[in-house]
Write a structure and sequence with these properties.
Layout: H1 2-34, H2 36-41, H3 46-82, H4 85-91, H5 96-99, H6 101-137, E1 149-152, E2 157-165, E3 170-178, E4 185-195, E5 198-209, E6 215-227, H7 232-238, H8 247-256, H9 263-293, H10 298-324, H11 330-353, H12 355-359
Antiparallel strand pairs: 1-2, 2-3, 3-4, 4-5, 5-6
Helix pairs in contact: 1-3, 1-6, 3-6, 3-9, 3-10, 6-9, 8-9, 9-10, 9-11, 10-11
Amino acid sequence: MRIADRYIARELLPPFLLGVGGFFVILVGDILYTLADYIVAGTATPDVILRLLGYKLPAIMVITFPVSTLFGTLLGLGRMARDHELQAMRLMGTSLVRAFAPVMAFGALIMGLTFLTNEVVSPWANHRANNLIRTTLFSAAFPQVREQVFLRGPGNRFLYVHRVDRDARVLRNVMIYEAEGPLPRLITAREATWSAKTWTLHHGVAREVGPDGFTAYEAAFAAMEINVGLDAGAFLAGQRTPEEMTFRELKAQSEMFESGLSPRVAVEFHRKLAVPAASVIFALVAAPLSLQAARGGRFVGVGLSIALLFTYYSVMSVARAFGSSGALSPLLSAWAPNLLFLTAGSLLIAREEGWFRMLVPLRRGGAVGVRL
């Protein structure tokens, strides 16, 4: 079986690499299509385009690796099923679960590679790419202030903007948390305007929290000017969206604020693990489906890959929208498509192994047997 394991792994690798190349070209084409207007206008120079594509490469790989695992499993095992190699293994007494073991190991390897890319390289690269877009393609700094993103200012000061009114050039529902001094201070305001390094807060409340966790001082104000210590360029450079933060940074941010992360950010926090895990889930689903797809030829496997990907990302988009709005638990929202495909893959393997027939014995002697 060790020889068979290596043989199956070698069969998965070529279609996996083919999938990586194909999906990479598609996603790069999508980026170039998005930047087409800026390329024509001359705003995006060839140097900027090449740098942007280089920074976007890790994020593209994070999406491509799980998808290519599905593609490689369906085509690789499909070829073996068409040539009756998997059937020969089963005739030798090898169960499907054991035959699919190298497939799951391959998916686990890709999962680890995806997680490392998403945790180590992708946040840094996404941050550099977004800063390049903000500073090069968009000259107006203020409209690019990001919503629902925590920004760390000088010292132990943290700033948060819930919504940006770009027409009125006003920040809505602003929070400033200052951890310096004997008592932490929390300032909240309905809105704020921006002038150089100074924010003018309107209709807010300033609170100081005592050692016991209760409010030691509270005062309302109509207007307050506060020096945030950041100019427009520094603010843009310092902003970090969830895609620009690592799993540890998001976890630390959640522990820092008692109220936790906003629903949208919490969903992205859980997706840091759910997206890499999709590699194993795709391998689990594609392995038994490859036996059925083999009867229809190679093109059936490609079509089935597209159908599965459409289903997965449709469920993911809907669950993500519900989770971001607070209508669904962020944890369940991030893992919903994985749980759905995990259930489907387990049922398909059970069906191919005949486990259902063991649970529902067939009646003989004229009665009609029930087969699942």
